[in-house]
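Hi team,

As requested, here is the filled-out complex form for the glycyl-adenosine-5'-phosphate run. I kept the field names the same as last time so the parser does not choke. Let me know if anything looks off before we queue the next batch.

— J.
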Amino acid sequence: MATADSPTDLMERIVALCKRRGFIFQSSEIYGGFNGFFDYGPLGAELKKNIRDCWWDDMVRRRDDIVGLESSIIMHPKVWEASGHVAGFTDPLVDCKVSKQRYRADQLFFAQVFIENVEFGPESINALVDKGRIKKEYGEALTNGKFNPQSVSVGYVSALESERTKEELNEKAEEFKKKFQIRGQLRPIDRTLHDMTEAGADEIALIPSPATGEPGSLTPPRSFNMMFQTNVGAMTDGSSVAYLRPETAQGMFVDFKNVVDTGRVKLPFGIAQIGKSFRNEITPRNFIFRSREFEQMEMEYFIHEDADWKKCHDEWIEWCKNWLLSIGLPESHLSLYAHPQEKLAFYSKGTVDIMFQYPFGVQELWGIAARGNYDLTQHATASGKPMEYFDEATKKKFVPHVIEPAVGVDRILLAALCAAYAEEDVKDDKGNVEKRTVLRFSPRLAPIKVAVLPLMKNKPEIVDVAEKLYRKLKRKWNVFYDESGAIGRRYRRQDEIGTPWCVTIDFETIEKDGTFTLRERDTMQQKRITETELFQLLEEKVY
Ligand code: GAP
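And here is what came back:
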């Protein structure tokens, strides 16, 4: 990947490039931005469209067993009651009463500070009690020497989830020890970390707030529903409450019968949808990784109740992984995470996430869940409409089971950006070393496929050929015409936005054989190419 100094630097550079070259802007930027919302600029909109189109083509159009759907964003509120979202689509949150900051409890980590061979300074224990780091009774026990000097707990440190959580906790423990003048060896914080959902009632008062660094202000975790509410119609009372959908999946379940009755589908088959989802995330962060308005690409693959769900689940995990490779994500950045059985919802048979190595850590990209027949059964019960499938072969009716691969367009886009971003030292025409920033997007995803560059803008014969080629290419692909600046600078501008190829129309084109110079982004090598060969190249690589 890139050569930037630290993960934070790298993310900052990627964010800066996105703004500079018109990929992604803050939403409502002129009003100071709006946390958790983003706008996609001209290049970002193309990149996003390419992700959607590749997925739709591979998932729906090129398969015989999957059909598409576009359901409404606002659905009957009963949909979300039946699906369990009204009661259970919650995150545990913790408030800091002093700073008024709000944290997701599962992203706020804490650890107990243990000192081995401890020696307290004259005021250490009093200070620990006064600052609320330990309870009074425990302070008295310490003062009276009622502790094991081999290893003693002297309080807590906390840190927000990041790729450095453990290091940060250790640094804070070191500072803690100094601040309270405690001698001895710090026991490294290297075990499984605990988050605030696991904090005991006694511990909460002793855990420092990440905002103030002081204990005593954090509340116990409480549930917060993440669905955005709105009102439908003229009334704004309880009867008009509706929700912006937090996932596209429910559309497929609610329309299951409609598709079966009209779509000439036979098990196993899938229904796929791409669309916006909305979640009032407590801590939107890491740029577009976790936002409040985002786009999902979900597919519900319905299978026979007696089908080998495990095999089907494995096949979909493999399919999703291969698809990510086909759009250029490096295999080295992908890994699988199987959710532990005890953390699964009661109806779930298994969930595996495809994880991606983002600069800020390994994070979920794509979830592939085996959901049994829970969703269809819930809607059948709540609506009173049967959701059964009639199997011609056995003449039996049953509620199909489902495998659900669910992914966010924005998360794929961010993964593609991070994997593609590189800074390199290269030599210019005169042999001077210069820095080039390059986005090595796969041709499938690249917002611009080819840049057409007339060598000189004041040679009508050259410009004429260039313009004709540009118009011809533009019928099929997104291409760019650039006649300003030295050719080397024009190449660099295209490198920075990830254009895989530049074609230069030069004197050889008009005076000799009509061929162009094709310059390849990644190798920077150049070769002569005919128009037919150029079209063949694009047909083959952009699919
Ligand atoms: N129907 C199942 C479902 O929605 P999920 O794991 O909550 O499952 C699926 O979401 C995918 O949607 C995630 O793997 C992620 O790619 C994307 N996603 C979820 N929340 C997101 C957010 N706040 N911002 C961006 N993408 C998000």
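Two things worth flagging: The longest helix spans residues 42-61. The mean pLDDT is 95.

Thanks,
J.
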